[in-house]
Amino acid sequence: MAPEQFREIGHSLIDSIADFYSHLPTASTASPLLPDAMRQRLGKREMPEKRTNIAPVLDKFSKLFFEHSTHNGSPRFWGYITSSAAPIGALADLLAAAVNPNCGAWALSPIATEIENETIRWLAEFMSLPGKWDGIVVSGGNMANIVAFIVARKAKATWDIRAKGLTAPESQRLAVYGSGEMHTWINKAADLCGLGTDAVRWIATDKEHRLRPDALRQAIEADRAAGLSPFMVCGTAGSVGTGAIDPLPEIAKICKEFDLWFHVDGAYGAPAVALDNASADLKGLRLADSIAIDPHKWLYAPLEAGCTLVRNRDDLHDAFAFKPSYYQFDDNEGQEVKNYFEYGPQNSRGFRALKIWLGFQQSGASGYRRMIADDIELAHRLYDFIGQQELLERGTVSLSIATFRFVPVDLRKRSMEAGAVTDYLNELNARIATALRLSGRAFVSNAHIGDRYMLRACIVNFRTTLADVELLPRLIVELGRGLDARFRPAALK
User: Fold this and answer.
1) Is pLDDT above 90 for 332?
2) pLDDT tens string 369-424
């Protein structure tokens, strides 16, 4: 593609994207098309054998893409912890792709590596982490947590686990601990790292869905008595279901007492520690050995942008560094550089840090603090609005997540009973969530609190206004009434 053609096509695409942004506040939150209809809309094409004039192809696809995507940038998208991505991030990804640095080695990406170094330092400073933390930018929360898991396994194994693995004569069965509300990344980590999912201990939680330190202590002591080797405790700073924050300072004390690695999954909630009114529990993440944080959640970067932060840089290096003969990247006249292929599982790495770095400069730390505080305030106002609706039952509110459900008045007294009423209310609220998504008027997801299926709104969205959250309870009541009238079993009428 000649530069002038690129300029012409690029200008046209940027104009289309700018129009998309301008219409986003009133656009449908999601396409109403089901899979078969979506495939029909796209049409079936044979792989082209010869070149095609790409300008009309790009123009046609962009229109389809804008119309039939799930718009997590909509001010009424509250379904998952995927933020409304800042436009500066889109420009950052375009710029990064144009130069296409391989951020696996300094020699292949000199300025990009230095930007990633600075980005990691800024993330640590934003959360006021003590000391000289280091880390690596990765794809997202799963990988950020899994990288920390691998680091912890290497740091706490009493034998050379990298060379001898888990079947050496001197090896021990490892165990890892986290709350019953912990994200399922832990299952993937235990599986991928050879421990098996049975190595995960799901610790009981209190009435606020936080890990119980007494239950954690009992589990560690029982495993040690049985000859197992506990090595890691995972605290949660903002659970995916309800936004619960574990008692991180108490967990830190237990980890220090038993010499265990203390990791905090802050993929969602960690940025909120920068607020002046952050809770003591949340501030406890500063006591961790490692932290997972996702800038593509509450720092409004486009996907993909996760980060693993570690207190001790050597622990990260020791877990991943190899020096094959075909990598000769040490010819820097004795000057220290960071080759990221030695600090994580990837060799070839894109320039994910740029959008985080530019985002910090556009918004500033104070801007991020204000937007995060606004999201939390909106979630609490939503919780208040829910309480004003007779047909809605409030569940929980923590950080920027509120949970609730639709309960017909005549079923309210029986709504906590196990059996037919609970089963019906769970089915009804699941139908409401689906109907709301297909309507394109708003998007929520779900959480489970005990046996109850709850609707869940997570606000990590700088476009959301008070009017948006005030509308949601009315939409839920409108849909709930109609679906209840259609689907309630005769036995419950």
Assistant:
1) no
2) 999 999 999 999 999 999 999 999 999 999 999 999 999 999 998 888 778 999 99
Residue 330 has pLDDT above 70, yes or no: no
Contacts of 456 (CB under 8 A, 6+ apart): 78, 241, 242, 401, 402, 403, 444, 445, 446, 447
**Verdict on whether the full-model pTM lies above 0.90:** yes
Cα 126 from chain centroid?
18
**Whether the Cβ atoms of residue 104 and residue 349 lie closer than 8 Å to each other:** yes
Pick the CATH number of 102-350 from 1.20.1600.10, 3.40.50.300, 3.30.470.20, 3.40.640.10: 3.40.640.10
Q: How far apart are CA 209 and CA 250, in angstroms?
A: 15
Conformation bin of residue 339: beta by default, left when phi > 0, alpha when psi is -120 to 50: beta
* CA separation for the pair 314, 360 (Å, rounded): 27
Mention the CATH class of domain 23-44+56-86+368-493.
alpha beta
Crossing angle of helices 110-126 and 353-387, in 10° steps, is 30
For residues 129 and 119, what is the distance between their CA atoms, to the nearest angstrom? 14
| Domain locations along the chain | 23-44+56-86+368-493, 102-350
If residue 447 lies in a helix (H) or strand (E), which one and from where to where? Answer: strand 445-449
pLDDT over 70 (residue 445): yes
Cα 166 to Cα 157, 220, 353: the distances in Å are 10, 20, 34
Are the C-beta atoms of 469 and 380 separated by less than 8 Å? no
